[in-house]
Amino acid sequence: MTSWFDESPETYDRARPSYPERLWDELFTRLPEAPFLAEIGPGTGKATAALLSRGATVTACEPGPNLVAYLREKFPTPRLAVLETSFEAASLPPGAFDGIVAATSFHWVESASRLVKSHAVLGPGGVLAVIDTNQVADPIDRGYFAASQPIYDRYFPDDEAPSSLPTRNVVPLAFAELEQSPLFASPSLQRYDWDQRYSTAEYLDLVRSYSNTAQLEPATRQAFLADLAAFIDAAFQGYVVRPLVITLCLAKRAP
Questions:
Q1: Which of 49, 169, 190, 214 could serve as 4's disulfide partner, Cβ 3.0–4.6 Å?
Q2: How far apart are CA 99 and CA 37, in angstroms?
Q3: Total structural domains in the chain?
Q4: By three-state DSSP, how is residue 180 classified?
Q5: Which value, to the nearest 10 degrees, does the dihedral of the CA atoms of residues 74, 75, 81, 87 take?
Q6: Which tens digit of pLDDT belongs to each residue from 36-81?
Q7: Contact predicate 76/102, CB 8 Å
Q8: What is the rounded CA–CA span in Å between residue 195 and residue 168?
Q9: What is the rounded CA–CA span in Å between residue 243 and residue 167?
Q10: Which tens digit of pLDDT belongs to each residue from 206-243?
């Protein structure tokens, strides 16, 4: 995983969306009572909070030292162990976990090892849960994302033009990966509409949490955010709606 998420945990935690309660309800129907879970890339603990609140004991693999400190302070409970390491490099006991949860993080794990390692550390019948936050095409955005593209073109001239967004029937890449893997069985896919509305200030916090924004020179970054704020206030009544679908891919460890 990359390091920019580690630079400002408070901004990241404030800006990024959480996940629907219905998703956690579905996941916990597939797990034993008080399960032992491994979490991949917990970040600031958006998913961790839900897992702990439902009685799980969690071993979280987080490579960012600032995020590790943030998580340990945020969740002072013996049911959470935070390892300062990536999932690939973590020393996890074979067959020790009832489930693995990767909330908007699975794509950061090396593709060659993520299913192999997941299979190795899950116990018999253990569940892999891959959660993705998918921005989708929907007129509820009032055309904001298309209309704001010229601002992005000005500050990120080397970036490729964004590809077309999926519909609300989005199928995440992880689902096809699980379907094709002999290491996992009975994959299923659930979708949850999760549209987010942001004031101008809230939306700027979200944009600050993105890697391309963090990589701008400070003066350029401030100019970019100022232009974006002025545009949202003038053309979009001071708010942005981001159409989201949260997907939950579940699969059982094959024997």
A1: 214
A2: 5
A3: 1
A4: helix
A5: -50
A6: 999 999 999 999 999 999 999 999 999 999 999 999 999 999 999 9
A7: no
A8: 11
A9: 10
A10: 999 888 998 999 999 999 999 999 999 999 999 999 99
Query: What residue numbers bound the domain in which 105 lies?
Result: 4-253
As a whole number of angstroms, the distance between CA 229 and CA 238 comes to: 8
3-state secondary structure of 19: coil
> In angstroms, rounded to a whole number, what is the distance separating the alpha carbons of residues 34 and 41?
21
Q: How far is CA 143 from CA 16, 53, 244, in A?
A: 21, 38, 15
Place of tokens 């704020």: 229
Structure tokens at 130: 């891959």
Kindly state the tokens that stand for 128. Answer: 């892999």
Smallest Cα–Cα separation from 114: which of 43, 172, 64, 41? 41
Cβ within 8 Å of residue 164, ≥6 positions away: 137
Q: What is the CA radius of gyration of the chain?
A: 19
Q: Which helix (H) or strand (E) element contains residue 221? A: helix 218-235
- Name the one residue in this structure whose structure tokens are 């490729």: 160
**Is 25 in a helix, a strand, or coil?**
helix
* Distance linking the first and last C-alpha atoms of the chain: 29
Cβ neighbours for 102, distance < 8 A, ≥ 6 positions apart: 39, 40, 41, 87, 109, 128, 129, 130, 131
Beta-bridge partner residues of 253:
184
| Residue 122: strand pairing partners | 97
CATH number of the domain to which 38 belongs? 3.40.50.150
CA 108 to chain centre: 10
